[in-house]
Design a protein that fits this description.
Length: about 260
């Protein structure tokens, strides 16, 4: 059965051939597909041209023949989104396409950068440009605050992460290490109720108040006016729990006793 939103008989991952008919923007190709001579057209965006970022991205002029894989489940602006990179690396595309959100994947930390961590997965092919097919963004590393990703993991460390989604633009398995660990907010919510009085340290000023750390990796919003009445960063204050939102992981605090 065809995926909703796509023309009949076409599925995500299918490889289609066609001819470039327009290059409306740098590194964006509009393709007349052999499979659909009357339309819709296909479109290959700049992030879908190649996953090998170590080389110059391919250039095209009208008339060039191309093959590319269907990359999205529905039409975008009346066009089929295509990935030439996926057609270049069918094994990697097939592997990533079979992964289910929430699945546990194991591997080795291959490289740590200031924007995230690359993981070489035990299963699946290597990436054509990156040191690992798995990638953990900074927010998905830990529930706790940290300055440097190297405070959380080290190169060569074995990790087991949850699969979040297939990043079709980079050919990556986006992962979460954080989701394999107990959520300190939920632990805090289990033992705390509205009206409880707590002591905490002010850790950040924001336009409409301050954030107060009341437990390890748990911060709450304390609304306060700007000026002399606002506690400073580093100050320890007594607060009352006003509201706990488990689903959104939000904690609202108030001054003094409730």
């Amino acid at each position: 059965m065809a995926v909703d939103g796509l023309p009949g008989g076409v599925h995500v991952g299918d490889v289609l051939a066609g001819t470039v008919v327009e290059v409306p923007r740098p590194r964006t190709w509009v393709v007349k597909l052999d499979h659909f001579p009357e339309g819709p057209l296909g479109e290959i965006g700049p992030l879908d041209l190649t996953w090998d970022f170590s080389r110059e991205r391919p250039k095209a002029e009208p008339g060039r023949r191309v093959t590319a894989a269907v990359a999205a489940q529905s039409l975008h602006r009346g066009r089929i989104r295509l990935s030439a990179a996926a057609a270049e690396h069918p094994g990697l595309w097939a592997f990533l396409s079979t992964l289910s959100p929430g699945a546990l994947l194991s591997g080795t930390v291959a490289e740590i950068r200031n924007f995230g961590v690359f993981v070489a997965l035990d299963d699946g092919p290597p990436h054509p440009a990156f040191p690992g097919v798995g990638f953990i963004t900074i927010p998905e590393l830990s529930w706790s605050w940290f300055k440097d990703p190297a405070e959380v993991v080290r190169v060569g460390q074995r990790v087991t992460c949850r699969f979040v989604h297939f990043d079709t633009s980079n050919g990556e398995a986006r992962l979460s290490l954080r989701d394999t660990l107990p959520d300190p907010f939920q632990t805090f919510a289990d033992r705390t109720t509205a009206g409880d009085r707590l002591r905490g340290e002010v850790v950040k000023e924001i336009p409409f108040g301050v954030l107060v750390r009341v437990a390890e990796a748990v911060e709450g919003l304390l609304p306060s006016p700007e000026g002399a009445g606002r506690p400073a960063v580093g100050e320890v204050v007594t607060v009352t729990v006003a509201e706990i939102d488990r689903a959104a992981r939000k904690l609202l605090l108030a001054f003094g006793a409730g």
